[in-house]
Amino acid sequence: MANDAIIADLKKSIETWNVALCKEATQKAIDAKMSVSEIMDKGLGEGMAVIGQKFNDAEIFLPQVVAASKTMEVALKMLEPLMSGGSSANKGTVVMGTVEGDIHEIGKNVCCAMLRGAGYNVIDVGPDADSQTFLDAAEENDAKVLGGSALMTTTLEAQRELVIANNEDGKKYKCIFGGAPCSKEWCDEIGADGYSATGSEIIELVKSLM
Ligand code: B12
Asked: Which of 59, 113, 137, 147 has its CA 20 to 30 A from that of 164?
C-alpha cells in the first residue's frame, strides 16, 4: 500500500472515529517505516483538525469529538514504543503539562513522547496543571524547561501566568508553550522563551534551550 493511501486512511480513521481502521492504518504506517512526525502531522493530526472544524461549524458535537480523541489515543499507544525507544541518554529534564483550566492533553502527550524519544527525561504533570504544580515538579526533578500546552483561547492567559510565576520564583526555568491557539507572537508578548507549532519541532526547541 502506498504511503499516500496510508496517510489518507489515518486521517479518515480520526475523522470517522473508526478505531478498527485506525489500528490497521497505524500498523501499516509502522510497517512502512513512516516517521512518527509524518504519521502525526500529515495523517492523524489532519484528521483531528477536520474534527475541530466540524465541531466549530456545529456539524458534530462533543460525543463525536470524544470518540475521535479516543481513536487518536489508540494510535498514540501503538506509536509510543517508536517515540520512546529513540535514545537512552538523559539529555536533561523537561516538565510538561496542560495549563490550568484546560483538559486537552493529546498534543501535550505527543510532545512528551517525542521528547522522551529524543532522550529527554519528561515529567508529565498532566492536564489542568496550575503554575505552582509546574514549578514544584521542576524543583523536585531538577528540570531546565517548563512546557505548557493550551488548546483554548481562554486558557492562553494561564501560559502568561506561568511565565509570571516563574519570574517571581527567580526565573530558574525556561518556559516554552504550544497548542493550537498559541503562536510565536503570543509567546513573545508574554515573555516566553520559545514556541513550537508541532511535536516534531519541540525537540529542536528544547535542544536549543538546554
Ligand atoms: C480532541 C478535543 C477535545 C477532547 C480532548 C481529549 C483529550 N484527552 O485531550 C475533549 C472532547 C475532551 C474536548 C473537550 C473540550 N473542548 Co476540545 N477540542 C478537541 C480538538 C477537536 C482537537 C485537539 C487535539 O487533540 N488536537 C490534536 C493534537 C495532536 O494537536 P495539538 O493539541 O494542537 O498539539 C500539537 C501542537 O499544538 C503542539 N503542542 C501542543 N501542546 C504543546 C505544548 C508545548 C510546550 C509545545 C512547544 C507544543 C505543543 O504539538 C502538538 C503535536 O504536534 C480541538 C480542535 C482543534 N483544532 O484543536 C477542540 C477544541 C480545542 N476544543 C474546544 C472546546 C471549546 C472544548 C470544550 C470547552 C467543549 C465543551 N463545551 O465542554 C471542552 C474543554 C473543557 C476544558 N476545560 O478544557 C475548542 C476551543 C475553543 C477556544 N476557546 O479556543 C476547540 C478549538 C474546538 C473548536 N473548534 O471550537 N476537546
From this structure: 113
